[in-house]
Amino acid sequence: MVKKLTPTSGAHRAAGRILDVLEHLAKGGQTLTLADLSHSLDVPKSSMLPLLRTLAARHWIEQPTPISYRLSDRHPIAGRWHVEPLELPKVARPFLERLTHDTGESSFVGVMPHGADSVVYIEKVESPRVIRYGAELGEQRPLHCTAVGLAIFAFLPPARRDELLRGMRPRKFTGRTSTSLTAIKRRLSQVRQDGVITTLEEYVQGAGAIAAPIFDRNNAVVGAVSLAGPADRLRSSVQPLTDAVKSASLAISVALGWRPALVAR
What CATH number does the domain located at 86-255 have? Predict the structure, then answer.
């Protein structure tokens, strides 16, 4: 029996279980029963069955018989568990579409170019709502007060993180922007613990965002996925939106080849 761990201790439990199921089925193209999966992953059947039904409804898995399950080849991402290096926007696009569809808010992927001290958006799916958050691809965003910036900043190699902090002169954009280096350091530590960050009116008055890091096959942070919208709407639904963002970041990371660490129970 093995227990799968995520890069951070704050990973969402249900999202982790979903990825455990997909990875377990991916091993050798296995076809397994509910009982098999429940035993192998140490998850009660009563908890496992709703996950399987959801994955089947979304075409991530299929049922060759009424009591067995395997990975589906109908889903556009299923089968990418051993992908060659792909461009992040192409890999992330279907997950952003799903994230925006499920939440109604605009979703983005941001990266930190090599040697830069800011982040830029490289892919987006805008909300269909009349009142929404919008941003142009390629626009720079600061590290210290944006969700996508903090999500990436927190998981940079320690030496690079310290270098950026030493040279940082934080600018105040709104009344809620923190410019204290001590406070920023504490926040980065919290992001590493939680695996997600929420910012409300810290960069743009009236707007907020929730972001989580994206990792590659080498467990290096390569970007972040974020959900952005009017601050009042985010405040009223913080927990479900946070869960959705963390699930999307985990799924994109796995599609890029990242694997949770395996340790003996």
Answer: 3.30.450.40
